[in-house]
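Hey, I'm writing a tutorial for new members on how sequence and structure tokens pair up, and I'd like a real worked example in the thread rather than a made-up one. If someone can provide the structure for the chain below, I'll link this post from the tutorial.
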Amino acid sequence: MRLSMLVLLLVALPGADSAQPPAADAVQRDLKAAQGPWELVRYERQGKVWGPEGIARDFQGKGRGLLLRFEGDKLFVGADKDQKPCRLRRGGPRDHTFWLDPTTTPKRCDISIGSDWGFLSRGTAHYEGIYRLQGDRLAICLAHHPQTRPTGFLADPDREWLWLLVYRRVPSPK
């Protein structure tokens, strides 16, 4: 009896095994799967939908700024190599940070940005969202805080500060 209690206590102790908590493992798995550049192929806001042609037309001059790029635990918007990245955060919202929770359904994400950060920039802002990463497709539905976090992948026509962004992985040059 004492031996089985000791085994249970040892297993429950922090650091008893070398593996990270499941949530941290899941975050690292999704970050690894998302590495590299992504181009915006669908954008929805207030009941309007833009496909690749509409994006090219209505976001003229911002084409390279519509790219997402994951490098390690950093997220960049745009092709500018000198841009300040958002870094994966482990605490509360701070400028230039992002957060992932792949253990929920749907998976959750938050992003806090400064006024100098890409086409979503509206001054210093915090967005709450959900995401779905499937192979070479990444869908992100974001609500500008204090709007409530979206629960599905659609842009409600009655919610001005809600966006659905669908990205396609940019193929590696051959």
